UniProtKB/TrEMBL annotation:
Record key words, sorted: Oxidoreductase
Domain Enoyl reductase (ER), chain residue ranges per copy: 16-332
The protein, known as: NADP-dependent oxidoreductase
InterPro entries: ADH-like_C, ADH_N_2, ER, GroES-like_sf, MDR_fam, NAD(P)-bd_dom_sf
Organism: Paragemmobacter straminiformis
Keyword presence, Hydrolase: no
């Protein structure tokens, strides 16, 4: 059983020293437990938070413990009611080949499911995040302008496509021409602006001539600075993630613009609301699963995976995710040993 444990808490960007590969015997499941073999490991931005012991909504991974992560796995042996060898499940094996589980928090996947790994993306946590943040907090109306960054990732791509289905003008923000071409040509966004362009803020203003009514916040930093002046009176801002800040070791240089921000919130009567998907909206999961299942079956939703083979690739793939090197949902595929 190969596994990555947290070797040290990173300062700034994670490095090769952050995670350590270990080889240990495959665990033997005791009575009332089952043995799961990981087939797909999801890489997600929140994992950077788990590497840190700064106060957060979830406990950090302990130094020396297996790195956490959502997985699609095969049941190898089982003494848990409802699970038998060969079943495929959504589980939280973490960054390792095998895990033992008592079945709590483990969900059976439909054996007819065409793409099991999608349970880690558009049909799972990131897709649900997009749907709930947009519909519950963003509450876009037809004809409004919706803006979202990280536009080709699993959250942003889903936000923009749902907003199009709701009749909105959708402006994406992504890193590079190829991602922007995908957002417009494949995902159906009206516009997509490259946040690395020198005149990014000007291009964004042109792409949203009527201002922005819903800004789905995935990244923060310089992108938010460009969006803020474009927000309309009554704008809604689901605050989902701030990935541009996850490796930051201190606040940015001044001047302090907090009172300017609050002044805008006041004068434009805006709503900014943060959310943690399962803690805030877990009860809505069945409604999401039904809606998304229907859209996918009808061919109204596109999904792109960025699949990388081999557990040993996971640390570099994760560092690259925080840099924007992924193009679509980043998943590690782990073949049978
Ligand atoms: P993505 O697959 O979209 O990966 C992150 C992307 O962020 C990168 O590909 C890159 O895209 C973009 N990015 C990274 N650094 C910067 C930067 N400095 N400026 C602008 N963009 C940057 O991730 P997900 O779709 O999985 O997640 C998107 C966001 O949603 C994250 O912030 C995540 O933490 C958050 N999230 C929050 C949840 C919640 O419950 N609140 C649940 C799930 C996710 P590009 O190259 O296009 O810039």
């Amino acid at each position: 059983n190969r596994r990555f444990v947290l070797a040290e808490r990173p300062q700034g960007e994670p490095t090769a020293a952050t995670l350590r590969l270990e080889a240990v015997p495959v665990p033997a499941p005791e009575k009332g437990k089952m043995l799961l073999r990981t087939e797909y490991l999801s890489l997600d931005p929140y994992m950077r938070g788990r590497m840190s012991d700064a106060p957060s909504y979830a406990a950090p991974v302990a130094v020396g413990a297996v790195m956490e992560g959502g997985t699609v796995a095969q049941v190898v042996a089982s003494d848990v009611d409802g699970f038998k060898p060969g079943d495929r499940v959504l589980s939280y094996n973490g960054w390792q080949d095998y895990a033992v589980s008592d079945g709590v928090g483990v969900t059976l996947l439909d054996p007819q499911m065409a793409h099991r790994s999608w349970a880690l993306g558009i049909l799972g946590m990131p897709g649900f995040t997009a749907w709930a943040g947009l519909t519950q907090i963003g509450q876009p109306k037809p004809g409004e302008t919706v803006c979202v960054a990280a536009a080709t990732g699993p959250v942003g791509a889903t936000v923009g496509q749902i907003a199009k289905l709701m009749g909105c003008h959708v402006v994406g923000i992504a890193g590079g021409a190829e991602k922007c071409a995908h957002a417009v040509g494949r995902l159906g966004f009206d516009q997509c602006i490259d946040h690395r362009s020198a005149d990014f803020a000007d291009q964004l203003a042109v792409a949203a001539p009527k201002g922005i009514d819903v800004y789905f916040e995935n990244v923060g930093g310089a992108v938010f600075d460009a969006v803020l002046p474009l927000l309309n009176t009554g704008a809604r801002v689901p605050v989902c993630g701030l990935i541009s800040q996850y490796n930051a070791t201190r606040l940015p240089d001044g001047p302090d613009r907090l009172s300017m921000l609050l002044g805008q919130v006041l004068r434009k009567r805006m709503t900014l609301r943060g959310f943690i998907i399962f803690q805030d909206f877990g009860h809505l999961y069945p409604a999401f699963a039904k809606a998304m299942g229907d859209w996918l079956a009808a061919g109204r939703m596109h999904y792109r995976e960025d699949m990388i083979d081999g557990l040993e690739q996971a640390p570099d793939a994760f560092i690259g995710l925080l840099r924007g090197e992924n193009f679509g949902k980043r998943v590690i595929r782990i073949g049978p040993a």
